[in-house]
Amino acid sequence: MAANSSDQPISDQPVLEELDRAECLKLVAGGSVGRVAFDDGEGPTVIPVNYAVDGDTVIFRTSVTGRLNRSLMTAVVGGEVRAAFEVDRFDEADHAGWSVLVRGGAHPLSDEEKARVTPVDPWPGGDRDAWFRLTAMDVSGRRLHRP
């Protein structure tokens, strides 16, 4: 461990920093793969998705016949299903990186909404015609970095 001019030890350990909402949304906006967390009736489930950020919402697509679509569909017009979305980036060699969690309500997009939101290009082939918006009600994040 090194010392500074006042003979106080300087740690070379990474520092954990809490991120504000604006920084979190900026970090998430730069990515294309994240994970949606939800309860599928059998317990907590996490599924990776391609996504885009549209304002303070996350837009993602999935298969109409998939577990994610079945779990997030609601029969209530305008209703939302509680879900979370997480994105992170880490450098394991340097023990540095960041993680952001977005929690809120998810709802399927109407055809009119699909035409107005930021497009999402899913990596997997096949049917990905179920579009969802997750509105960011609670956003939190942390960054681990060298001092």
In short:
It holds the Pfam family Pyridox_ox_2. This is Pyridoxamine 5'-phosphate oxidase family protein. With 147 residues, the chain is mainly beta.
Query: Structural class per helix/strand content?
Result: mainly beta
Q: Quick one: overall form?
A: elongated
Radius of gyration: 19 Å
Strand order of the largest sheet: 4-5-6-9-8-7
**Which percent range describes the beta-strand content?**
over 45%
What is the number of strand segments?
9
Low-confidence stretches: none
Order of helices and strands: EEEHEEEHEEHE
Give the class-level CATH name. Mainly Beta
Helix percent reads 10-25%
Into how many domains do the coordinates divide? 1
Main beta sheet strand tally, sense and closure: 6 strands, antiparallel, barrel
- The number of distinct helices, counting runs of at least 4 residues, comes to 3
Distance between the termini: 13 Å
Going by CATH, the architecture would be Roll
CATH superfamily: Electron Transport, Fmn-binding Protein, Chain A
CATH topology: Pnp Oxidase, Chain A
Give a written overview of the molecule:
This protein has helices at 21-29, 67-72, 111-116, and strands at 2-3, 9-10, 15-19, 33-39, 44-54, 57-62, 81-91, 96-108, 130-145. It is mostly beta strands and 147 residues long. It has one domain (16-140): Roll (Pnp Oxidase, Chain A), CATH 2.30.110. Strands 4-5-6-9-8-7 form a six-stranded antiparallel β-barrel.
How is the topology of this model organized?
Elements lengths: L1 E2 L5 E2 L4 E5 L1 H9 L3 E7 L4 E11 L2 E6 L4 H6 L8 E11 L4 E13 L2 H6 L13 E16 L2
Antiparallel strand pairs: 1-2, 3-9, 4-5, 4-7, 5-6, 6-9, 7-8, 8-9
